[in-house]
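Let's sit down with a protein and look at its sequence and fold side by side. Go ahead whenever you are ready, and we will take it from there.
>
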Amino acid sequence: MRQLKPPTLQQWGCAHQWHVTHTRSGWPDPWPTVRYRRCQRCELRVRTEEHLSVPWDELALVAQVTQLLPEGQAVALRKHGITRLPLAGLNRILEKHGLVIHVGKEGDPTQMVACVKEYGKVEEYGLFEMRRLARERTRKRQ
């Protein structure tokens, strides 16, 4: 671990020329990024953390998906510019909140969306509908 010390008077007056190194806290969640800045002139060392400025949690995802797919209405996602969808991953997260995306192969063949299912298998679907899960099923998962 790097030792940080408060700046001296000489370092306060320096026109800093920063050399930046950074670390990532881990994968797949690499934030916050920790940056270590070292002045090449006065050797001042500073540590900063970078946080996401956009919401990045499950509730934000659920809100975004429910806005795109109103409950009980079949929607063609291709019309919204979506050509590929990680269906298995989304359903895994939505299940925790009592929701699931139900898919159908009906619809215009030119409006199909490639969906990544379990184990990376890709299938094309045309219509998507948000549904509530039965309470017994959600209790078993928790």
Notes: Residues 41 and 53 are 32 Å apart (CA to CA).
